[in-house]
Design goal:
Number of domains: 2
Number of strands: 12
Largest sheet: 8 strands, parallel, barrel
CATH class of the largest domain: Alpha Beta
Radius of gyration: 22 Å
Organism: Oryza rufipogon
Structural class: alpha/beta
Distance between the termini: 20 Å
Pfam families: LdpA_C, LdpA_Fe-S-bd
Helix content: 25-40%
Shape: globular
Keywords: 4Fe-4S, Iron, Iron-sulfur, Metal-binding
Protein name: 4Fe-4S ferredoxin-type domain-containing protein
GO molecular function, one term: 4 iron, 4 sulfur cluster binding
CATH architecture of the largest domain: Alpha-Beta Barrel
Number of helices: 13
């Protein structure tokens, strides 16, 4: 059942959809799927739930809110329960606003255990001194560390912290591997446990009709492991509409790496392909400076004439300052870039930067609303709390709206 304030949502989104339709109309004769049309215009927005973030309750609510806000794609861990949570959130959003566009669902995998997106923090709280100030708990952006001090029975002084012990530790499903806890531990007790997603399980996920895209994270340290993963995925790769490759800027060899990867992909490339320029991974929630590296990455590639075909999208350090930085570089929804080299494969009607993926920052601004829901509700469904849903949606629109060109809406 729709929340009692659904009328407010519908009214607000009627204006949003009208603006979006007007923008789509500017590309006459564009018969691509709406998600691809957004990439061509340069107003594609992707929500990154986190390649290692597996808290299904949060993923569900984030997917619901950002679907209402109009994202084109939701990227999540390649885990069946997480994919189910994303699709549940999308379905609820569609039940509230039936005309909402259904975003593509993307699963993220890696070809190398050295990729920072695929690791979890780990430590034994019994190794922690009981009087530790717990800086790891304070610095964690995902609220993935919970430590409680308990007193040991029959101790002589219940008020002395050294007479107790710490219990709890890392909440594994919430940890997404940012690594901020590693450097702040005063006793160097925290470890990063890396892993690689199982290609066989990923191949099964790609056969589902509610998975539309895959993103392969590669570290830029050669193509052998990418080629091996691609081979292991086999024919399952033909089931998706979009194949994305996320990679860092490795300097002058970046374009050669991309072309080598593209050569490998051509054997099974039946849909669209996208290059995710991962400037400064998992840092968007830090501040203005975090977005510089991904914009610099885009500027670097814009000057290269031999870059491979496909759409280009920013990630890694993206936040509310990213559009401003892109505009200063002349790259926001631009089909040309002064001084840039022209690629023989570039469509002159296609924006060079197809869009922006928002991860840590997107989760932060909506997450602080989710944290307001009283604890007694447990894993709350945000649609059961319409005031919080509207507040979360307002936060999401503040991020998605400037990319999409939505009109300024009154407070919901």
């Amino acid at each position: 059942m729709a929340p009692p304030t659904a009328r407010s949502l519908l009214a607000s989104h009627a204006a949003v959809r009208a603006a979006a339709s007007a923008r789509r109309g500017r590309l006459a004769g564009d018969h691509h799927p709406p998600q691809v049309a957004a990439l061509r215009r340069g107003d594609w927005v992707k929500l990154i739930c986190g390649a290692s973030f597996e808290d299904a309750a949060d993923v569900r609510n984030l997917s619901l809110v950002y679907t209402l806000a109009g994202v084109d794609c939701i990227d999540c861990a390649a885990d069946a329960s997480v994919v189910g949570a994303v699709n549940e959130g999308i379905d609820v959003a569609a039940s509230i606003v039936p005309a909402v566009q259904r975003p593509w669902v993307m699963v993220s995998v890696n070809d190398d255990c050295r990729d920072l997106h695929f690791r979890k923090a780990e430590f034994d709280p019994e190794d922690c001194p009981p009087d530790c100030s717990k800086p790891c708990e304070k610095v964690c952006p995902a609220d993935a560390i919970l430590l409680e001090r308990v007193m040991i029975e029959e101790e002589h002084s219940q008020s002395d912290p050294s007479c107790g012990k710490l219990e709890g530790g890392v909440i594994t499903e919430r940890c997404y591997g940012c690594g901020r806890c590693l450097s702040v531990c005063p006793y160097d007790r925290i470890r990063a446990m890396s892993y690689v997603r199982d290609p066989a399980m990923t191949a099964e996920l790609l056969k589902r009709n509610d998975v539309d895209a895959i993103e392969i994270h590669t570290t830029g340290k050669g193509t052998d492991m990418f080629n091996a993963l691609w081979s292991n995925l086999g024919e399952s790769i033909n089931n998706v509409k979009l194949i994305a490759v996320s990679l860092p800027d490795v300097g002058d060899s970046t374009v050669n790496l991309m072309n080598a990867i593209y050569t490998t992909m051509q054997s099974h490339l039946q849909g669209y392909n996208l290059w995710q320029l991962d400037g400064r991974p998992m840092s968007g929630d830090i501040g203005r400076g975090a977005t510089r590296e991904t914009v610099s990455f885009a500027v670097h590639l814009s000057s290269m004439s031999n870059r491979p075909p496909g759409f280009y999208q920013l990630a890694g350090g993206t936040n509310s300052y990213t559009i401003e930085s892109l505009k200063k570089a002349g790259l926001f929804q631009s089909t040309t870039f002064p001084g840039a080299a022209t690629s023989g494969v570039t469509d002159c009607q296609q924006a060079f930067i197809g869009g922006i993926a928002y991860g840590g920052y997107a989760r932060k601004i909506v997450g602080r609303v989710l944290r307001k829901i009283p604890a007694q509700f447990g894993h709350a469904r945000i649609e059961d709390h319409p005031d919080y849903l509207l507040e979360a949606l307002q936060e999401a629109l503040s991020l998605v709206g400037p990319v999409k060109g939505y009109p300024t809406l009154p407070s919901l």
